[in-house]
Amino acid sequence: MAQPFPPAEPDAHGLLDVGDGNRIYWETSGNPEGKAALCVHGGPGSGGRRGSRTMFDPEVYRVVLFDQRGCGESRPHASDPAVGLAHNTTRHLVADMERLREHLGIERWLLHGGSWGSTLILAYAERYPERVSEIVIAGVTTTRPEETDWLYRGVGRLLPGPWEAFRDALPARDRGGDLVAAYDRLLNAPDEADESVRARAVRDWCAWEDAVIAHEVLGSPGYYSDKTDDALMAFVRICAHYFAHDAWLEDGQLLRDAHRLAGIPAVLIHGRLDLGSPLKTAWELSKAWPDAELKVIDDSGHTGSPAMRDAVLEAIARFGRNR
What we know:
By secondary structure, the chain is α/β, with parallel strands linked by helices. It has helices at 90-104, 116-127, 145-152, 160-168, 179-188, 195-214, 229-244, 253-256, 280-288, 306-320, and strands at residues 12-19, 22-30, 35-40, 61-66, 109-113, 132-138, 266-271, 292-297. It has an eight-stranded mixed beta sheet, with helices on both faces. The model has no long low-confidence stretch (mean pLDDT 95).
């Protein structure tokens, strides 16, 4: 069984001014002369976690991590309801990634991430395919409306109690419509909700997310809510903001434009038991992208398993030999 590498301390870090009053946190570790790789976190809004660097041999890779706008150590932080999210969209994040690449003097880099990070990786790679050497995704999503509807409504068929609690936490007038949009209005319109109302909405959102993960065979109860209050507020505000707007992507755009990924080797790793993001999207992407190899992990859900970790380590090690 492959083992992650010991965490390497950053050799450089900083806050990069990306415009609109935003500064994104970045750090590098590993071999300064090594193969460049960018870790793209999920959420959206789940910045601050640094464990993904342990997937890379620090003697082979120059590993870059960054926190997307509004979360982690990036500033301003979306935990403050006065911080607007108008300049926090997929287009902005793609531009931030490219600005970071230029800032660090990197010509091409491997992209690694999963869940929302998968959507952002695909959006970036389809915009800048010449800047991407390889891609490793663990948990494929494209944030299509049907995917968001499944996670926040369809899965309720399997978890009716927790889903009804998620729905009924909203004002009665909003329970029969778009629940994600209703949470977005509640969390991102300070004039309509005081601090206690927003804090309760954050807890209710995370209770639903946790229920979905806990229902998986290897799921961990409290997976999403195991954050500080500020991190939770930023996470849920940003999630609701992105999902209520379909991530500012046309329906099916990332699959439609997968031809732009031609020539980029990739490994798509997906858990067969992923309840929140079913295998269908990964399957469709692999059909649209002949250079991508799909690996289905039979015992894994959305948050992974030892077998999924091994598959990620193997793929990254294999691409590390392409120097």
